[in-house]
TrEMBL record:
Classification via InterPro entries: Glutathione-S-Trfase_C-like, Glutathione-S-Trfase_C_sf, Glutathione_S-Trfase, Glutathione_S-Trfase_N, GST_Omega/HSP26, Omega/Tau-like, Thioredoxin-like_sf
UniProt keyword Signal, yes or no: no
Domain GST C-terminal as annotated: residue spans: 83-205
Alphabetized PROSITE patterns for the sequence: GST_CTER, GST_NTER
Alphabetical keyword list: Transferase
Protein's UniProt name: glutathione transferase
EC number(s) recorded for this UniProt protein: 2.5.1.18
SUPFAM superfamilies: GST C-terminal domain-like, Thioredoxin-like
Domain GST N-terminal: 1-79
Source species of the chain: Sedimenticola selenatireducens
Length: 217
């Protein structure tokens, strides 16, 4: 049955599902909507009014982590660890990654230097938590790329862009975390997981919402 992903072009949560689909080489259609002016059909089928949605025939899945677990159960190769305890730990860190994405958005949307710097401290605290639990590389659990990696790649992609706009971000990330991020950004499924003009759109979006660090972009 055909798969349709409902997306907003710069959404990191949709990007997680795109990466998983590409890793699994599954064909899918993608429908972009404008979240500032969502169509009625979307409001009817999205319980939280959020993307991503995955439409499978008449069925609709919502929430990126749930969508990716479904994809992982149905389409090989399985990316989640086989061991239930490891899988549960990964789910916890995927949730941590979702919080990190929201903190990154807050940093990007900060309206002035003070609130931006405060958000940098929050990000720095999360990096200090995350850094000791990642493997020596290249990926979170070592040689094997996992579902958890799909959840963090969108964060690293946005961080690389934001880093160009404020020096406070340049040295914020510990070396090991940066190394993991680079390995993810080098992966084909990640490179091809966004629209061609992603960076321009992402920056324009932040600017239009009054972002302090993107004001001069
Ligand atoms: N927990 C959700 C978060 C999804 C999310 O926040 N999506 C944003 C776009 S990146 C959205 O649809 N926002 C619309 C809104 O909040 O009204 C997931 O993991 O799928």
């Amino acid at each position: 049955m055909g798969l349709e992903l409902v997306s907003f072009a710069i959404c990191p949560f949709v990007q997680r599902a795109v990466i998983a689909l590409k890793e699994k080489r599954v064909d899918f259609d993608i429908t972009y909507i404008d979240l500032d002016n969502p169509p009625d059909w979307f409001k009817e089928i999205s319980p939280f009014g959020k993307v991503p949605l995955l439409r499978i025939g008449d069925e609709v899945l919502f929430e990126s982590a749930i969508i990716n677990e479904y994809l992982d159960e149905v389409y090989p190769p399985a990316l989640h660890p086989e061991n239930p305890l490891e899988r549960a730990k990964h789910r916890g860190w995927i949730e941590f990654g979702s919080n990190l994405l929201f903190d990154q958005l807050k940093a990007m949307m900060a309206k002035d230097e003070d609130s931006f710097q405060q958000q940098c401290e929050v990000l720095g605290g999360s990096f200090a938590r995350l850094d000791p639990v990642i493997s020596d590389g290249p990926y979170f659990m070592g040689e094997r790329f996992s579902l958890l990696d799909t959840a963090y790649a969108p964060f690293f992609m946005r961080f690389e862009i934001l880093k160009k706009h404020h020096e406070a971000l340049e040295d914020l990330m510990p070396t090991r975390l940066s190394r993991w991020g680079q390995a993810l950004l080098d992966r084909d499924s990640v490179k091809t997981s966004v629209v061609d003009d992603f960076e321009q759109r992402f920056v324009a979006f932040g600017k239009s919402k009054g972002s302090f660090i993107l004001a001069k972009a």
